[in-house]
Request: fold
Amino acid sequence: MLAAGLLLASPLAAQSLVLTTESYPPFNFETDSGELDGISVRVMDVLLEAAGVEADIRLLPWSRAYAEAQAEPGTCVFSTTRTEEREDLFTWVGPLVDNEWHAFVLEDSDVDAESLEDLQRYRVGGYRDDAVALFVEAQGIAVDTAPNDRLNARKLAADRIDVWVSGEYLAPWYAQLEGIGELRSLFAFNDTVMSLACHPDTDRAPLDRMQEELDAMRSDGRYAAILQDVLESNGGVHE
Reply:
């Protein structure tokens, strides 16, 4: 796991990066002990060591984390959904994780919908500036956005929204933390990957080494072991 603040890949590391991230379990989050953990965080730790890179990591609100990676060479943001609109804005290392998007309701909800078009007649909740909410809005669906996705679990339980659009792992994770009961997926509507997105003027050499190591991890079983361990442990997310 990575301590919040400085991630040291090697005492001999000659290159460094600034990494920005947000709380977005199970991919990246802060534990009760104040460390950063998650699928992407553990993968990043391996990639940094393999590339001989040291990194200063900053846990920030998503909008700020994303903006800093756009503004400063040598700065990267993860885990970032790789979309067509973002493709040319960054240099990418990935995929760190796969993230299918779903429309969720409470288990006993009587909401009936099979597509995004069907959601027009319901109150839909999402996460402000998140790729999921932006995608749904682009399909002409009004989305009541919250400043963080965990609040949508509370809004769903309080009958302030009918449907919650979010990632396949994130929404059930937050529902469990909030104790709101089981969620039911109405349908999946997009299959995406999330990656490390770096300012385009960032030195490409260490990023290439990181990509090579990531490809190797996905082939030799190390990636699958990280994924299973985090999902089974539920990570000790900071309350």
